[in-house]
Every structure is written in structure tokens, then in C-alpha cells.
Amino acid sequence: MPFLLVALLVTAAVIFIAWRGVRGGSDGSGGTPAARPKPRPRPLAPDDDAEFLGEIDRKLHGEDKSS
Predict the structure, then answer these.
(1) Which of 44, 42, 46, 45 is nearest to 57 (CA)?
(2) How far apart are CA 48 and CA 41, in angstroms?
(3) What is the CA radius of gyration of the chain?
């Protein structure tokens, strides 16, 4: 019976330590989750850029003499 109790306590301790390792709680932060980094702004696609669309429109209508 004492062997079973010791085995249960050791198993519980191993599971607890593994859980702390997976969660990243070993950094001393008290178990609070780390702040998420701010997402970077997505690059603007050419078909969403008003300046690009205006340039294409000028080229199509022959108003741009540079090309």
C-alpha cells in the first residue's frame, strides 16, 4: 500500500512539472500569460491601393506620357 501511495504522488508530481513546462510557467511570472505581440500591418495589395489604381487608370486613358 505505501508503494502505491508513493507511486501516485510521484506520478502527480511528474504530471504537474510537465504541465508547468508546457505552459511556460517556469519564467517566474506567477503563471500569468504573456502578452501577445501586436500584429504587423498587412501589406496593401495593389488592387486596394487608390494611388496605384489611379495610375493604371491614367495609363489606360492615355493621360500618362511617361511610358
Answers:
(1) 46
(2) 14
(3) 30
Backbone angles phi, psi at 64, to 5 degrees: -100, 115
- Here the cell at position 33 is 500569460
Give the integer Cα–Cα distance in Å for 6 and 33.
Answer: 32
- With a cut of 60, say whether residue 31 has pLDDT above it: no
25 CB-contact burial (10 Å; exposed 0-12 / middle 13-18 / buried 19+): middle
pLDDT tens digits, residue range 33-64?
678 888 888 776 777 778 888 888 889 998 65
Looking at residue 61, the DSSP 8-state letter turns out to be T
